[in-house]
Amino acid sequence: MNAMKCSLITVIILSSLLLSCSDESQSSSPQEAIPTFQNKGHELIYKMVQKTGDYQALLKKKDVVYTYTYQTPDGKADISTEKYLFDGELSYGSYDRHERTFPELEGQIEQGYDGSEYWLRHNGKILNDSIRLKRVAFNRPTNFYWFAMMQKLLDPGLNYEYIGEKTANDTVYDVVKITFNSTEEKPTDIYQLYINKQTSLADQFLFTVADFGVMETPNLMKLQYEEINGMLIPTKRQYKKSTWNADVSEKPWIHVTWSNIKFNTGLSKEVFKK
């Protein structure tokens, strides 16, 4: 009987040790590791992205299809069906209306990026015009980036600077400046986000367009969010020229809308090949 009791006690002790080790292992899971922040600005961006949904959340949704509408004050518009694969950042756009993008081409135009090559198709025929392809090489990653911007603000190679608090339209904001590391000796974009202290979301941000040499005078982008499949997506945007103090010009706004957003539609890589 004594031997049996000792064996039983040994089993209980070993089981307790194993459970303790298992709990300790789970508590130190990499998913729960506290990030190391560059500064307060980095921490604010991190908290914002946790609220909108991070890039892992996009990867789980695999792909997205939506309608992109870009409307200028003079009445001209681009309306395209956008399709992206988040793994690899593949991008496709089919333009039914393109009064700003290649307005000289009549009929449907399609643009794509398959992970290695940019391409352009007009009414089913591939165009190898180098000048137009440079525009495609700007449009495809830019449209993708705007859609996934909040998530990509935690990409490696970004620098964060906390500018301080600022009140605008009776709302108090934390202002964070973001710049990008570059291996090439050329300017990179600058973003300055106004993060609402109550909601932890960016209501607006200033940005430059380095590819077009627009560095001295930024644009101010204002955002309205919509919850879609558990993520907060800034589906309504308006922007125009501004100062670095976010004082906008008197000119009318340019409006951008994302509608009919559908995630995880089963897109294959063939969609993105020319």
Q: How would you portray this structure in words?
A:
It is a single chain. The model is unreliable at 1-32 (pLDDT under 50). The chain has a 13-stranded antiparallel sheet with strand order 6-5-4-3-2-1-13-12-11-10-9-8-7. The longest helix has 26 residues, at 2-27. The chain has a single domain, classed as outer membrane lipoprotein receptor (LolB), chain A (Clam), CATH 2.50.20.10. The relative contact order is 0.15. By secondary structure, the chain is an alpha+beta fold. The chain has 4 helices and 13 strands. The N and C termini lie far apart (79 Å). 25% of the residues lie in helices and 41% in strands.
Q: How do the helices and strands line up, and which of them pair or pack?
A:
Blueprint: H1 2-27, H2 40-52, H3 55-61, E1 63-71, E2 77-85, E3 90-98, E4 109-113, E5 118-122, E6 125-127, H4 130-152, E7 158-168, E8 171-180, E9 190-196, E10 202-209, E11 214-228, E12 231-241, E13 254-263
Antiparallel strand pairs: 1-2, 1-13, 2-3, 3-4, 4-5, 5-6, 7-8, 8-9, 9-10, 10-11, 11-12, 12-13
Give the proportion of residues in helices.
25-40%
Show unreliable segments: 1-32
User: Which overall shape is indicated by the principal axes computed on the Cα atoms?
Assistant: globular
Widest sheet, order of strands: 6-5-4-3-2-1-13-12-11-10-9-8-7
| Number of distinct helices | 4
Tell me the CATH topology: outer membrane lipoprotein receptor (LolB), chain A
- Residue-averaged pLDDT, rounded? 88
Tell me what the CATH architecture is. Clam
